From TrEMBL:
This is NADP-dependent oxidoreductase. It comes from Streptomyces solicathayae. Residues 20-339 form the Enoyl reductase (ER) domain. It comes from the Bacteria. The keyword Metal-binding does not apply. It holds the Pfam family ADH_zinc_N. SMART domains: PKS_ER. Gene3D superfamilies: Medium-chain alcohol dehydrogenases, catalytic domain, NAD(P)-binding Rossmann-like Domain.
Amino acid sequence: MSATLPRTVREVRLATSPSGLPAEEHFTVVETPLPEPGPGQVLVRNRHFLVFPGLRTLIGGETDGVPLPALRSGDTLFGPAVGEVVAASPDSRLRPGDPVAHLLGWREYALLPAAECTPLGDALPDPVAHLAQGSAAYGALTRLAGVREGDVVFVAGAAGAVGSLAGQIARLLGAGKVIGSTGSPWKAERLVRELGFDAVVVRGAGSVAAQLAEVAPEGIDVLVDTVAGEDLVAAVGAARQGARFALVGALSGQLSAQGSGGSAPVEIDAFRLVVRGVSLRGYSGADHPDVEEEWTGRFGDWLRSGEITFPHSRIAGIDRAPRALQELIAGRHFGAVVVEL
């Protein structure tokens, strides 16, 4: 490896398993020797990685049905990252300088099999945009909900990484009215002013169902739900005939101080689902392997034309990553949260 590379590098580990929500004190930033690639491996210098709420579930250990392993005390955190290859074994298809995406974030340098890296190419104008969580939103809207011209679309959790893109995508796919929900007035204001939402209901500012009925008196045709809980109950009450619901997250349970982030129980009116002919399906990217490439192509075109934006906060430095996760769980950020190394 090049003599310009450091001898030691830093990574974020889970220091202790919390009994409730993870906080900054449950993590530690440690130095470790710089690894060297073996056969079929590459060493990637990470430039950015995503802080995502699903870590709460992995840390809580309730991973039944989740395609990612639980995190135990002493484990290094992981998640989507982008960077460039700095060293590769001679048999690797990747060479130094190649920009790639992978799932070993939360560290300055990642050693992993070349087969687990995705070359970035030039589909997106900014490599950081590869950390956008729009694929789930796009897949839910095109494969499950099938947005039609003029539809009234309700995005639950509209200020998060998925929801902030879902509202924009729905509009580009022909929605006639886009309504969001969020947990704070300042986020609601930004959703309308910056992302073009027609209206936003605010959890904690009165009944979500009553607010939704006021801003969508004609009802809703489509739900993209990242929250569940009260938002899902309200959406069922507002469903029009033949409404299509796509569930892409359950943050009301994942980010609850009770439990371990692996369940989100909610009581909904099944009779309403039956008489209104409502379809309710969960979205999994693994069930739709064609979505990622399609989304990346359209996302790149929309970004270049200015028809869509990637709302995100950039946090500088790996030392601030644990606090960024705590702030994300507390709802202090708008859009995605990205750590810049």
